[in-house]
Structures are given as C-alpha cells and as structure tokens.
C-alpha cells in the first residue's frame, strides 16, 4: 500500500532529517560554555558530555589520591583515580613514529587513520561535546590536554564541541566530587571518524622556512631557558631556536591555584600578562616548541581562550627541524 504525500515537496524527508541533524548538532555544541569548564559545571552537566581523561601515566587511574597535612589541614598532593564514567586517552598515543628522509622520527603528528583508530579504541562518540580532563597536578598536564584539543580540531571536531576542565582532576578532587579508581577498560570500538588534517591549524617545514624568508611571525613557545639555548631536552640534538623566532615563553601561560591545581587564566589577564612579558603579536603566525605540547598550550590560550585566530602549529618542532639537518641559532 502506498501512503499519499499530497502537498509535500519532493525530497521533504531528507530535507527534514538534515535540518533536524543540524539543530541537534547546534544544541549539542551549545552545551559547552566555552573553552574552559569548572568542576561544578562539569558535575552538573556530566551526562551531556563525553568526559575524556588524558594523562601520561595510566597507572594512576586506579590509584587512590595522595594527601598531605599542611598546617593541620588535609591537602591533595597527587591525583589518583578518575571522574566516574570517563573515557581514557594515553597522551603518548597521540604521537607516532614516521619515516622522513629515510630516518625514523618519534613524537610526530599521527595520520588521520592513526588518530581515528586511537579515538575508536577509547570509544569516543561522534558529535557529542567533549570535556578533556588533565591531572592538573602540573602545568605539563594542561599542555597535554591542549595538545589533545588541538589534534581533535585538526582532525575535524568543531571547536564548539571541545573544552578543558580547568584545574583538571586536581581541582575536581579538591572540590570534593566523586573519584572512581576502577580500571577504564573499553570492551568495544566506536564509529568515530577523522577528517583530513585541517591546514588552517598546521604548518609544514616548508611553510616555516617560507615564514623565515618573509619575516613572518614565528613564535617559540618553550621555556625561556630553552629558547635562549641554555637548556635543551634529550629529544632535541642541539640547543637553540629557529632563526627569526620571537619568544613566547611557556612560563606566561599557567598559574598554581590555592587548591594546588594548575590552571589556565582568563583572556583579559592573558592580554595583560603577554603585554607585560613584551609579547606584542600573537597571530596570525606559526608557533612551535620541541615536539608539540608547549606550542599546543600557547595555541589553546591564544586561539581558544583569547579568540585570536590564525595561529598555526608546527607540530614536529625542533625535533623534526633538527632531525632534518636544518640550522638553529643561539643568543
């Protein structure tokens, strides 16, 4: 039996479903209040988002939090456990080894397929807002969360669907919310799909070289001692910086809160801090570090918190640059 559709335009069902999907997607994106969320907000909206824990030591997911007594008060010293029902991402799984000029180079940006497989393995759902939860025990954990946020955007997740819990698990635990120490063990994979990398967020080696020749904005987001060539990490063969780069020191981006958690600060404070640190221009341009996470922290502050668009990250950083045999300079 055929059902009459008198008076309805041809293709109305497809049009209606498309419109419904658009409204649903917009409603989901509107769940997040911005680039950062607080523990009370996440506690009240936990069922509306995907809570994704990220850390570089997965063993601590099943540990109890560690406390110390300071002036007669119990103070959180080290994060343990995770937020109930959280997914888990291993930070070290966000970079891969790639062969460049016949040489294997570690800590490189994954391909879309590699990233897709990682996200499917942790059961990330397509289209649902994501709140990334670092440990918050140190500034490095915030950079790791920012790197994950950047990769999600690179591979197609809209920025409106991504936020970071400011202060991470440290702030969550200090606020007295529930902590789960059961193992996070996904039993299946999701259907999450990655898109081709977004060139508006990425800079290649050739583009960095072009920026050097054109005297474009090139920002070094490492700690000041590394920018100055006084220190280096074991990953990077030689100390120094890229010719033409301006300092954007990592020390300017994070603060230690009263509860002991490390946090991002507000956009208007960042404007004052950067001006006070002698940083005049932040975008458009290219930001780099050693292997990507310092640069991602700077990108997250400038792009997501301050809303200044046009900053691309050179993810291979000094690691890729020097492995390619390209020159660096020191002060």
Automatic annotation (TrEMBL):
This is Sulfurtransferase. The lineage of its organism: Bacteria, Pseudomonadati, Pseudomonadota, Betaproteobacteria, Burkholderiales. Keywords: Repeat, Signal, Transferase. It comes from the Bacteria. Residues 45-181, 212-330 form the Rhodanese domain. It comes from Thiomonas arsenitoxydans (strain DSM 22701 / CIP 110005 / 3As). PANTHER family: THIOSULFATE SULFURTRANSFERASE (PTHR43855). One of its GO terms (molecular function) is 3-mercaptopyruvate sulfurtransferase activity. It holds the Pfam family Rhodanese. Its EC number is 2.8.1.2. InterPro entries: Rhodanese-like_dom, Rhodanese-like_dom_sf, Thiosulfate_sulfurtransferase. It is an enzyme of class 2 (transferase). Residues 1-29 form the signal peptide.
